[in-house]
Amino acid sequence: MTYEVLARVSAGDDLKHIGSVEAPSDKLARNYADTTYDEEDWSVMVLVKREDLVRVTGDVTEAIGAGELV
Amino acid sequence: MSSDATDDREAEAPGEREAPEGQLSCPFCDSTDVVKDSDFGPEISKSQYYCNFCETPFERIKFGESRRPETGR
Amino acid sequence: MSDGWPPEAVDYVQAIADTKLMLSHWYAEQAFIGPNIQDNIALFSLTQDEYGQVRQFFLQLEGQGLDGDRLRSDREREEFHNAATTDEPAPDWTRFEVRFGLTDRAAHLMFDAIVHDDFAGLTEKMSEEEYSHFDFHDGWLEHLADAEPEAFRAALAESLPDVLTFIGPAAYDDDTDPLVTAGFTDRSAAELRGAFLDHLEGIVEGTAVTVPDPDPVALEEWDERRRRVAGGGIGADVLDSIRGTGNEEFAVR
Description:
- The complex is a heterotrimer.
- Chain A has 2 helices and 3 strands, in the order E-E-H-E-H.
- By secondary structure, chain A is an alpha+beta fold.
- Chain A has a 3-stranded antiparallel beta sheet with strand order 2-1-3, covered by helices on one side.
- Chain B has one domain: N-terminal domain of TfIIb.
- Chains in contact: A-B, A-C, B-C.
């Protein structure tokens, strides 16, 4: 499964999409995200399964192909 | 954000951040006279420190998180 | 305690160090082949942690009169006191995690029990590193127990006796474990076995895997130095790799 990683450095900052991880379970996804994206002391980091993204506008598949969500 | 936290952050020289007192000590001599050399160490999730007392470089898990495994104690 | 080590302590620390040396070796091998790139990154990190810890344990052993050069690079196969689970590479990822993930856990429980002053700051730092090891290993172990219960059960049946033999015989309790009675550790082999098995029960909870009945390990059959009941050990090719035999011609003297 692919998980999108969203994080912010300080309270009040925008939550930003910083990358993604591939993992077979939520627990491993947390471990991967925590260690892979360790460039900041994030105040918040959350994961969303890519399959749970609800499309509103635009083509998500195309966006992924263009590297926007990876 | 509290004013204390802001002051601490401004007082830090880049690349040489004083470890919070009482939180981090040298694993070799237990001295707290340690400085952070770099946020980034030789591997992921590690920062590089230097002990002024026993003059030894060492690394610790980043961002002062002191988490240890459950041992059932 | 802060005075000299009891005689059994040197063997105990060498067994932990040699086991970590082998963990470092197998982690390094696996770090090139996944399962995925994030595991590679994690495994390279685990490799470095383990080797760094080995270095510190060897320095402590040198302080007890052991020859450091010999420990590091000049030993024969039978002189390694590593856990039997770490003799050979794991043939697949499930067995890798069951063998080495659980051996790493056992080694942590063992060094965490050391209360001698020589280890005060060291074991604390090592435990911080081990936290990330178990976040990784337990994530995989829980997933594999759930996703591949048959393979997991077989791997556990294969490795659990050797892990428990490494921890020590069940007959060593607070009154009889020589390391506890000497004040070098504060948890007996019996207590550590219990803590290990409790943790393992937690990993397989809610899956089709059950923990097999643990073998108590007969005290009279147990080799206190090598912490195993049978012979065996690392292979000649593994020894060459650890000693860097193939790299010698490139060494600058």
